[in-house]
Design brief:
alpha+beta; Potassium Channel Kv1.1, Chain A; Rossmann fold; twelve-stranded mixed sheet; four-stranded antiparallel sheet; AB_hydrolase_fold
Length: 919
């Protein structure tokens, strides 16, 4: 997960309106220097206060404007109390053993309380009602500065100091705002939450632009680090319009503008901002072939909770040059995998590799949205078991590729991100971390180098082969009796899949005939499933206009007839440009490696024209989701809750990953698109090659999908040239019996080739129709007819080849969609939010809970989550273990933090409590 810079050092309290004080004691400079270095005049000193008769150190306490007070102390007592004090004494011990340390920056009375506690002089500290709120605030600052929160915290409760000094906010009045920093420091969770509600609602500015509460009261002298600046900076563009002289460093706020946008900002803060901790508990396997390849992995308890079923996550490291295809792979590849054993008899189950598309999308979408053992819950902090997980039938290996996608990386790069502007800055070893004077977050990601990833589907297939060779030969927890390996790829997987499987089969044949030139592992390839696959642009582009207008099987007109006609009229030129691309590639880049700049440009231009004239009109005018024509845009399905879940710190620790999660990599996407990978050909030839070598191919499409329409998928199946083409052309479309009461779609099947139209399913078919998708998958895997699962398709003679029977075409018509889905806004995925919803957040009328904007729809869809937030026990700090397949960390306030790590938790609380506001 991400975290503020201040999570890497002790937090500094933020002053209002002056800059924050330095909270981490710098023991190497002028925080604690000797009397001689500070030129202390003896006339400045007052009579010595003795806290220890045998004390070996003298503190000179006071400010530059007051006479210094000598205090005789025990360095031993103070060293035991505080590591900061320990370092201070060690650095300033004189040759004769004496220690003199001036402390000019501390509020005297607050420091005396802390020193008396450290010296066990409890009878000299104030009793109940003996501290004003201002004195308590200064004590909090001292405790944070010297890391003695744990030492002092018990006395707040014992002597009655821990009170707001006003009735609390929920009772109808308020705590003093100064309590905000006190509660943050000492870990008073509930009152911190209540006071946050109050401050977010009431903060404003006076006539001079100074930040104040709306009743004229000044803001507290200290604030939790960075929060006030976050409150302000998110509104900077709007306030700058209202007040041209507005400056963030003045902390100016307009009282009539509420701080709802801060909620959106802070909802990302605890998960978007953190340098992930070094993974622990990893096992490291060096390749036995001595080629520098290694596997790091750990067993985890996430997601799959079936007793006795194991899961492992990790990385396969490939050194530079391992996957070199003549293009100079001069960067390392660390490919992330998550392996789940089959729920039943894993030793005798086959294995299936799953890939999401993009190009550049993480396969974690598949685990937590589609066909994995669990779904992410609406709280984005827990999961629930998936009944129709594909590991019911197969061992499952989910693989983030190409490099820089998901949790896969080349080299690690720390970055900063400005959440207001979106600007990203790379941090090198010699680059100082900039001061946090605005909404600035940090994280660890892949290098973001444009050239450090696979260029196109063919190059990606080579890297995937090297990953597979290492994993299947070295990973010790996969020792199957059934060695069949299948590949399921979605969306852009219509290119990934054919390119990978055909290359892998070619490599298998080279190993068998001895021409590979190296020892290799033969992958016993069984089935290729393409889920909503965009395989061949020339074949499929003509079906986009039909999917948008009446030809979708529902009679639905997503665009009007004028727009439809314009889309249709653009098809001929689109196809001509695609053919020009293919002709150029055949001449100058026949292997589709992206090595000829001229070919790349021709192919990229072809795709640009086709998308602009055939796809974009739907996106512009339909008002419907790109991946589901039945759903108004923005989409509410599949739920995006995995995005918050995968960026939880505890989840990343369980997975053993050293970086933040990238759902979609712009570098990987650009690398494929820039060479014009989309409109190139050979993918149909690859499918024919696979079929002729006994490998099954299933093309599965959802009839609600616009991204890769089902009509185009039907055309792809017909266009494959293989030895069974004539038999396939004679097959008919049979109903798919999902169960005794439900027909899940239509299938046309001949031998090893099947095409499926899945009813009432969008792009992510397993999410829409989990049982139907599983039945298709398992029947294909185990050589059963897709229609019923009762007939064997494993015949080898022409006379015994299975052929489906039924209707002559797949054009079954429905009167209406099954149901209209309720939309909602999830702040981790702003594409799910309407412009009106975003405006509501910015103008202060939004309520946010667990990254969900609360409205009638979210209240209806997620009543438990919303109720928990409004009860004050929810937010994004979900109760440990609740609705979770894993144990969450217990609550730790400032009193339990180490090295300032509480900042991440407390900034999360700020965000979580605001969700219950009606701003």
């Amino acid at each position: 997960m991400w975290s503020s810079f201040l999570s890497r050092a002790r937090p500094t309290p933020e002053r209002t309106p002056a800059p924050a004080v330095q909270c981490t004691v710098d023991t190497s400079e002028d925080v604690a220097v000797s009397v001689e270095d500070r030129h202390v005049d003896i006339s400045e000193l007052q009579p010595t206060i003795v806290l220890d008769d045998s004390g070996d150190a003298t503190l000179l306490v006071g400010t530059d404007s007051a006479a210094l007070q000598p205090v005789q102390v025990s360095s031993t007592a103070m060293t035991l109390a505080s590591p900061v004090w320990k370092d201070m004494f060690e650095k300033h011990r004189k040759a004769n053993g004496a220690i003199e340390v001036p402390l000019r920056d501390d509020e005297v009375d607050a420091l005396y309380i802390a020193l008396r506690i450290a010296h066990l002089r409890f009878h000299e500290i104030p009793r109940k009602d003996g501290l004003t709120i201002d004195a308590l605030l200064e004590l909090a600052v001292v405790c944070a500065r010297y890391d003695i929160v744990k030492l002092v915290r018990p006395f707040l409760d014992l002597y009655g100091w821990a009170q707001c000094h006003y009735p609390d906010t929920d009772a109808g009045e308020r705590c003093d705002p100064a309590w905000f920093y006190v509660a943050w420091t000492f870990g008073y969770k509930d009152s911190f939450q209540r006071l946050t509600r109050f401050i977010v609602k009431k903060i404003g500015l006076d006539e001079d632009g100074n930040a104040i509460m709306d009743d004229g009261q000044k803001l507290p002298k200290y604030m939790p680090p960075g929060l006030l600046v976050r409150f302000v900076s998110v509104h900077k563009p709007r306030w700058s319009t209202i007040f041209p002289s507005f400056k963030v460093d003045k902390l100016a706020m307009r009282p009539t503008i509420s701080s709802a946008a801060v909620v959106l900002l802070l909802s990302a803060a605890p998960v978007l901002a953190q340098f992930p901790a070094e993974p622990v508990g990893l096992k490291v396997l060096e390749s036995r072939f001595g080629d520098g390849v290694k596997i790091t992995y750990k067993e985890n308890s996430l997601c799959e909770t079936t007793p006795g079923v194991k899961s492992f996550s990790g990385h396969v490291y490939l050194p530079p040059g391992t996957a070199d295809l003549g293009q100079g792979q001069d960067y390392p590849i660390n490919s992330f995998f998550w392996f789940f054993e089959a729920r039943e008899d894993p030793a005798n189950a086959p294995l299936t590799i799953w890939l999401n598309g993009g190009p550049g999308s993480s396969s974690m979408y598949g685990i937590l949205e589609e066909n994995g053992p669990c779904y992410a819950n609406p709280d984005s902090n827990s999961t629930r078991p998936a009944e129709w997980s594909w590991n019911r039938a197969s061992n499952m290996l989910y693989f983030d590729q190409p490099v820089q996608v998901g949790f896969s990386y080349d080299t690690l790069q720390n970055i900063t991100r400005d959440l207001v502007t979106g600007e990203v800055t790379l941090l090198n070893e010699t680059t100082p971390v900039p001061e946090q004077n605005t909404t600035l977050l940090t994280g660890t990601f892949p290098s973001r180098e444009a050239n450090n990833t696979a260029f196109g589907s063919v190059n990606g297939a080579v890297a995937a082969w090297e990953f597979a060779q290492a994993w299947f030969q070295e990973f010790p927890h996969y020792l199957p009796n059934d060695t069949r390996i299948s590949l399921a790829a979605q969306s852009y997987g219509g290119r990934y899949g054919p390119a990978m499987m055909s290359f892998w089969e070619e490599q298998n044949q080279r190993i068998e005939n001895g021409t590979l030139g190296e020892e290799g592992y033969i992958m016993h390839l069984d089935t290729l499933l393409l889920i909503s696959g965009c395989v061949d642009r020339y074949v499929q582009y003509p079906y986009y206009p039909e999917q948008a207008f009446r030809g979708n099987g529902y009679g639905f007109e997503a665009v009007n007839e004028t727009t439809y006609n314009a889309m249709v009229e653009s098809v001929p030129e689109c196809l001509e440009r695609i053919q020009n691309c293919r002709d150029a590639a055949a001449q100058d880049d026949p292997e589709n490696l992206g090595i000829d700049a001229g070919v790349n440009e021709i192919c990229e231009d072809a795709e640009t024209y086709c998308r602009a004239n055939i796809v974009t009109p739907y996106n512009q005018y339909a008002g419907r989701d790109y991946y589901d024509i039945s759903t108004p845009s923005p989409p509410p399905f599949p739920p995006p809750f995995h995005e918050g879940y995968l960026n939880r710190e505890w989840v990343q620790a369980e997975l053993g990953v050293p970086l933040n999660w990238t759902g979609s990599s712009p570098q990987a996407s650009a690398a494929y698109r820039d060479i014009g990978d989309y409109p190139r050909d050979n993918w149909l030839d690859d499918l024919g090659f696979l079929l002729d070598n006994g490998i099954k191919v299933s093309l599965v499409y959802g009839d609600l999908d616009f991204a890769c329409p089902w009509g185009g998928g039907d055309a792809v199946a017909k266009a494959i040239n293989w030895t069974g083409s004539a038999g396939y052309a004679s097959a008919q479309y049979a109903e798919i019996q999902t169960n005794d009461s439900y027909v899940g779609g239509l299938v046309r099947q001949y031998g090893n080739l099947s095409y499926i139209r899945t009813y009432q399913a969008g792009h992510a078919i397993p999410a829409y129709q989990p049982e139907t998708a599983f039945k298709i998958f398992s029947r294909a895997l185990f050589n059963l007819d897709i229609a019923t699962g009762t007939e064997s398709t494993a015949g080898t003679q022409e006379s015994s080849t299975y052929m489906s029977t039924g209707r002559p075409d797949p054009n079954v018509q429905f009167d209406a969609f099954t149901s209209e889905r309720l939309t909602y806004c999830y702040t981790w995925d702003l594409s799910s939010c309407t412009e009106e919803t975003v405006d509501a957040v910015l103008d202060g009328s939004a309520e946010i809970c667990q990254y969900l904007v609360v409205d009638a729809n979210t209240t209806q869809l997620f009543p438990e989550v919303i109720a928990q937030c409004r009860a004050g026990s929810g937010g994004n700090a979900t109760a440990p273990g609740e609705h979770s397949n894993s144990t969450l960390p217990e609550f730790e306030g400032g009193a339990a933090r180490v090295g300032g790590r509480a900042w991440t938790f407390w900034s999360g609380l700020v965000m979580s409590v605001v969700v219950s506001l009606t701003l």
